[in-house]
Design a protein that fits this description.
By secondary structure, this protein is of the alpha+beta class. Helix content is 34%, strand content 27%. The chain has a single domain, classed as FAD/NAD(P)-binding domain (3-Layer(bba) Sandwich). The strands form four sheets. Strands 5, 6, 13, 14, 15, 16, 17, 18 and 21 form a nine-stranded mixed beta sheet that branches. The chain has a six-stranded mixed beta sheet with strand order 8-2-1-12-20-19, with helices on one face. Strands 3-7-4 form a three-stranded antiparallel beta sheet. Helix 7 runs parallel beside helix 10. Component of a multi-subunit COQ enzyme complex.
Length: 415
């Protein structure tokens, strides 16, 4: 094969579809290997999945480039975003610009995204093998890499792209070291029923000392809960009954027990000063819709870690998505960074074809690595800083972040 992509999740499938729909790759032999079964849905599922993504405008453009966006069976636009602090109740509100026709984001379920991409991928010449588990890789310097499958097949590729997740076998086989640490936090996710609102298009996130709790809109009756907390608390939240769980969620959004009295008084004075001097106007405090139920079987949890590969490429090998980098979910940027890898690598490979370069040439692939690390590293550092900055209730830090957030919310150009 000219190109073999290991991992058929959202990012791996998008990589295959992007290349498969490019005229420059029509004569190239491309293979996508996926260890799981085929995911192709012909109708909208009755139940929502708790595994969702917040898709950015750049991701929308990527999926539109091979006409997969309109194939996503269920999408919920995010027009507003409200983020606030449980220790001071100071927050910041983001609103989309109606005249632009663009939303802040769209929320979609992972399985529906994969299905939409595969739907378009099947219209290309890209070969797909499902339930194809990689046993090992044979990597001998300048030779084409070989992929040994569980069934005994041995495949050879001029370029091997790893989209096989945070525990990437390809990355380990290449001896690419990583910078990684656990956050000592666990995310609890579930599909929750909300008290029906006319337009559920606001994403709500409150920072608690143990981590952020977020509600992403799915419809006027449902939202997806993503609650970051301690491992022990996550275990408890999974074990309690549905009614108790709903009560805990509402309490987490409304409880004032973490409030810092001194900070509250000072931010109140700052708010009045900003308003009377005309320097800016803080947004009006808003509350999320009340949670009234939880979908049975939708509660799940997963540990949170940061992981970054020191290298994204080697000769004839490239890593994308979680195989190259994994971030905290508080900003909803994880999969968007992966789709950004797809955009960048596809562009570099198209340029290589036009120049007559070898697809797996290390100098060619280095252009992709440089481009992506310039985007990914600042994003990772910012997300990690915000998580650490907000996941505590130390008075000086509460005061600093509250005043900073208040000024940012009041002054449009800073926001």
């Amino acid at each position: 094969y000219d190109i073999v992509i290991t991992g058929g999740g959202m990012v791996g499938s998008a990589m295959a579809a992007s290349l498969g729909h490019s005229k420059l790759f029509e004569e190239k032999r491309i293979l996508l290997l996926e260890s799981g079964p085929k995911v192709l849905l012909d109708k909208t599922p009755d139940k929502y999945s708790s595994q969702v993504c917040s898709l950015s405008g750049a991701t929308k453009d990527l999926l539109n480039s091979f006409c997969a966006w309109d194939k996503i069976l269920r999408l919920q636009p995010v027009k507003h975003m409200r983020i606030w602090d449980s220790c001071s109740d100071v927050g910041i509100t983001f609103n989309h610009k109606p005249d632009s026709g663009e939303y802040l984001a769209h929320v979609a379920e992972n399985n529906l995204i994969v299905s939409a991409i595969v739907n378009r991928l099947l219209e290309t010449k890209v070969e797909i093998r499902y339930k194809a588990k990689v046993k090992s890789y044979i990597l001998n310097g300048g030779d084409d890499p070989k992929i040994v499958l569980d069934d005994g097949d041995v495949l050879k590729a001029k370029l091997l792209i790893g989209a096989d997740g945070v525990n990437s076998l390809l990355r380990k086989s290449c001896n690419i070291s990583t910078v990684a640490w656990p956050y000592q936090q666990t995310a609890v996710v579930s599909v929750v029923h909300i008290f029906e609102v006319l337009n559920n298009n606001t994403a709500w996130q409150r920072f608690l000392p143990t981590g952020p709790i977020a509600l992403l809109p799915l419809s006027n009756q449902f939202s997806c809960l993503i609650w970051t907390t301690t491992p022990s608390e996550a275990k408890r939240l999974l074990s309690i009954g549905a009614e108790d769980f709903v009560s805990e969620v509402n309490t987490a959004y409304l409880c004032e027990k973490d409030s810092n009295e001194f900070t509250a008084r000072l931010t109140s004075c700052v708010k009045q000063f900003l308003s009377t001097t005309g320097l800016g106007q803080c947004s009006v405090k808003q509350l999320p819709p009340k949670v009234v139920g939880v979908d049975e079987g939708s509660r799940k949890s997963f540990p949170l870690t940061l992981c970054h590969s020191n290298y994204y490429v080697k000769n004839k090998i490239a890593l994308i998505g979680d195989a190259a980098h994994r971030v905290h979910p508080l900003s909803g940027q994880g999969v968007n960074l992966g789709f950004g890898d797809v955009i960048s690598l596809a562009k570099v490979l198209e340029e290589a074809v036009l120049r007559g370069e070898e697809l797996g040439n290390i100098r060619t692939l280095a252009r992709y690595e440089t481009d992506r690390q310039r985007s990914v590293l600042p994003m990772m550092a910012t997300i990690d800083f915000l998580n650490r900055f907000y996941s505590n209730d130390l008075s000086p830090l509460v005061l600093m972040r509250s005043l900073g957030c208040q000024v940012a919310d009041a002054v449009p150009f800073i926001k």
